C-alpha cells in the first residue's frame, strides 16, 4: 500500500520508493530508505501530511506519499 493510504498515528516500514530519481534521492538524503520506519503524525484534507522519519519530522505532498510503498 502507499503511504498516502496510511492512517494518522500508525507506523509503517518503507518497502520501496517509486518516484523520479531526483525525488527519490531527496528522500534518501532525509533518511527514508528501504526498511526505514515511518510514522504518520498529521494529515491535511486531501493534500500534505507530516511524517516522522528517524526522529525528524517533515511534510510531504500527496504525490510523494503516493510513490512511497509501505507495509504495516
Topology (SSEs and partners):
Layout: E1 11-17, H1 21-29, E2 37-43, E3 49-53, E4 56-60, H2 62-66, E5 68-71
Antiparallel strand pairs: 1-2, 1-5, 2-3, 3-4
Provide a concise account of the structure shown.
The chain is α+β, with helices and mostly antiparallel strands and 72 residues long.
Kindly list the characteristics that best describe this protein.
72 residues; 5 strands; 19% helix; five-stranded antiparallel β-sheet; globular; alpha+beta
Overview of this protein structure:
It is built from two helices and five strands. With 72 residues, it is of the alpha+beta class. The protein has one domain (3-71): Ferrous iron transport protein A (FeoA) (SH3 type barrels). Strands 4-3-2-1-5 form a five-stranded antiparallel sheet. β2 and β3 form a beta hairpin.
**Overall domain count:** 1
Strand content: 35-45%
According to CATH, the fold-level topology is SH3 type barrels
The stretches of 5 or more residues where confidence is low (pLDDT under 50) are none
Largest sheet: 5 strands, antiparallel
Taking strands numbered 1, 2, ... along the chain, how are they ordered across the largest sheet? 4-3-2-1-5
Backbone CA Rg: 11 Å
- For the terminal residues, how far apart are their CA atoms? 9 Å
What average pLDDT do the residues reach?
Answer: 93
| CATH hierarchy, class | Mainly Beta
CATH H level, superfamily name: Ferrous iron transport protein A (FeoA)
**H-E order:** EHEEEHE
Number of strands: 5
Tertiary shape: globular
Q: Just name the CATH architecture.
A: Roll
Task: Give the proportion of residues in helices.
Answer: 10-25%
Helix/sheet category:
alpha+beta
Amino acid at each position: 500500500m502507499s503511504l498516502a493510504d496510511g492512517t494518522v498515528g500508525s507506523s509503517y516500514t518503507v518497502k520501496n520508493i517509486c518516484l523520479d530519481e531526483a525525488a527519490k534521492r531527496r528522500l534518501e538524503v532525509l533518511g527514508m530508505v528501504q526498511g526505514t520506519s515511518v510514522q504518520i503524525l498529521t494529515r491535511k484534507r486531501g493534500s500534505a501530511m507530516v511524517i516522522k522519519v528517524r526522529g525528524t519530522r517533515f511534510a510531504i505532498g500527496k504525490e510523494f506519499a503516493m510513490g512511497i510503498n509501505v507495509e504495516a
